[in-house]
User: Fold these one by one.
Assistant:
Number 1:
Amino acid sequence: MQNKTRPMWELEEAAHERGYALVCGCDEAGAGPLAGPVYAGAVILPEGLELPYLNDSKQVTPKRRDVLFDQIKEAAIAWAAASVSPEEIDATDILSARVKAMQLAIDALAVQPDYALIDGNRDKGKYFALVTPHETVIKGDSRSASIAAASILAKVSRDRYMEEMAEKYPQYCFAQHKGYGTKLHYEMLDRYGPSPIHRLTFLKKWEAARHG
């Protein structure tokens, strides 16, 4: 059966062969930034769908990500994006927040999947665990069409949120660095201190250096 499938569909096909009719891909974006939520995307694609340039969101240009974002939403059987706030990241931990965001995205799908393909190798944190039947896939966003599509949904959704926050807090230049710890971002932190959307637990080294 796998010979009939594109390589990016082998994991989905294997799940179908095990009896799972609806398989979703799930991935998150924004685990590392100093500011903003962590986002997750979940998507169920029509079997065998081919979208030009579909790949891990980090390997796709921003303009192509925007095009793919719309194509995925239009073609998907179901899609969703969900987020966990900086406050909750601080109150729990980033792994728990990532896992929770992924489960929230899966739960938000209009059609519930029988099985989920999860990017990475972690499916539970100290506070949250995935409950949908699933498997984790290392480098899944370059091995599975469904996970790749979910990575696009998560990345574009988060980037657009950070662009909105750039209008609300223009002094931090969020549109340029999306909350990641760039030289510019640290310069703005030095100048203005943390904003309401900064992850305070992620700023401990900056605080130590500032007061050291």
Number 2:
Amino acid sequence: MPELPEVETIRRGLAARVEGRRLERLDILDPRFCAPAPPAELEAAVWGRRVSGLARRGKYLVWELEDGTGPGTVEPPEPLFLVLHLRMTGNLLLAAPGDPDEPPHLRVRFSLDSGDRVLFTDPRRFGTGVVLRGTDAREAYFAARLGVEPLHPGFTAEALRILAAGRRAPVKAFLLSQERIAGVGNIYADEALFRARIHPLRPVGSLRRPQLAALRDAVVESLEAGIDARGATIDDFRHPDGARGSFQHRFLVHRRAGEPCPACGGEIVKLRVAQRGTYVCERCQPRPRRPRGAGSRRAAVA
């Protein structure tokens, strides 16, 4: 699944070609993309609008569209937002005028007044799109789904401490919870926990202030490294021009089971945490101790 660095890479790759252009036509070829809203309704809402900006929130890509109201109106124009989530296998590819045939698994076509087309492809058909009218609707939509933005100044060690306080969930599960921290997925959680030297099974509420400070910094460093490498291509992710990301060549632990740890030389192992394949060096990231008496309690229950 594209995570924050991959979506930010897509945003940067498209922005220069779509911002300021008019969206002359939107063709939704797969009704599942916007269900339960009818495709014709979503298409009609955005046709002819100018793209005033392309933004990102967590793993969501946001097309900011100017209202089509003409000059001379008393009320300020109401912005419209087309919010996309790429899910597991979605990509946005840029096709210039005269480019060859469109790719397979095409679900949505954005046609701009420049002649460029932005093509949303998605083999597994999990990606979604929704239209939101006005900034209040946009803020409410994200407030119900997303927590703090990890590259925002508000993501501090103290903010992380408040979010983690009293929680017994494994820290890996905590990092994957989009309602807590927006945009971190499996790749960058593994990389951040290794950088912070924290085992993914450690209860997040048990972390001390220095560990939380290290984790905050490690999350930011891992995401910034991913953006610098223009994302990680393991399966489907591509840049808008079709190129692959390169962060997969810089992984410290993710997908490196059986290989030596880059810090201590010990073997990297694969675990299952929060129903996700998880990679860890248990020398550098010591496994949490089992609470005293836990084994006997489990035996008694059994």
Number 3:
Amino acid sequence: MSLVSNTFLLFILAAAVLYYLVPLRFRWIILLAASFLYYAAGGVKFLFFISYSIVIIYGCALWIRRLQEAGASAGKQKAALILGLVLNLGMLGVVKYTNFVTGTLNGLFSLQIPEIAILFPLGISFYTFQSSGYLLDVYWKRVEPEKNFLKFALFVSFFPQLMQGPIGKFDRLAPQLTEGHPLDLRKVAHGLERMAWGFAKKMILADWAGVFADAIWGDLNRYRGLALFGLLFYGIQLYADFSGAMDVVIGIAELFGVNLDENFRQPYLAVSLADFWRRWHITLGRWMKDYVFYPVSLSGWMKKLTKWAKTHLGKKIGRTLPIAVADILVFLLVGIWHGASWKFVVYGLINGFILAFSELMSGVYASWKKGLHISGKEAWFHLFQILRTFTIVSFTWLYDRSDSLEQGNQMLKLCFTHFNPARLLDISAGSQGRAFAPWALLIIAVGCVVMVGVGILRERGVKIRERLNALPLPATVAVFLLLFIMIGLFGCTAAPKGFIYAQF
């Protein structure tokens, strides 16, 4: 059931009406039923996988807590934790990476291991991470394990966030799902408004940018002079699509009185790659920081490496080396999490090595700035940092968008060897073909100006949503209707596509 389908909108309407018709204390049951019905609509066979994850993590969390209360050894507690993580994340590994591993072995050793037809369950990358994070929090005694199996099942399966995130934390999300919320028409209106904003970003900006990005990537021989534009259009498409999806998801949750975590904060206004990753897919970054970065950087073997580095390489490198190594490991996992392909491994490692190198060179950069009399507060330097970061991020998208590592390398070469912007007008834009290309480009340009303008206002502390919330309810409804009129007038007329990270 696509987020951009009429069926989905009717499903949301029915779920919201039922939610507010039943007594408060039973409303979480409506959310649970809607979540499993939504998931089953994508394929009843997929219910096994999410149910497996729920059962494994629920049981292991209670087991760990009983071991802790009984004073069992740290080894037994850790064994229960490892078992739960292996069974849960192992399922993700089997369904997502089996054919990648066998294909790599075939290439390295000239084997002929056949590919296996494996179901790829909807949303598995998100719900396995969310449930695994919960298990680690129970192990570290950050949260009490949920004893009600059905309430825990709702935490894992809550349908708005199931397909694309954000990745929720148990202590923040679970109480909101189960407490039951009274009907608040203002909050419902604001949720609808947030959904409309997300659909506008998707159906106007992302889909029009996708027309040009897909055309360029789909025929590099014909559009070789547009490689740089293909990179730019994909960056626009990806942000408008993914952040638009988050707006829709967060808006849907608001209809039920639930506040999900924000997943984006003006990432293209970041001043460094590290800053970008604090703003882009925020909940994935938080998950990696809490459950990978800190455990690795504070582990026993890392402390030994730090001690060795301080002795042989100097105190400064010794202090920064654990951070650099942890960064590389985190982004290797981020790359692999994005997909079972060597292009994603390269994508992750590029980000990891840039961050690690920047960490190791931080002192040198500081001395350069001092020598050039740059305080860091200059407007021109801030703009330089934003443009530099945007350029670096854009080139990393090469391997995220390309169909293969080889195509990514080809695109990288074309970016520096061919340039023919006039060919943009040869691209067929929507149902009206090439004749509409200039108008489609104008729509993209205006959309980007609006997005950047909104981002700058937010960076300066202007609370746009809060100001909209302060408007009378009729005005809020008018904004909602205006956004849908804009979609009708300027929405992409090419064949409709779902959100990029749907079914991830």
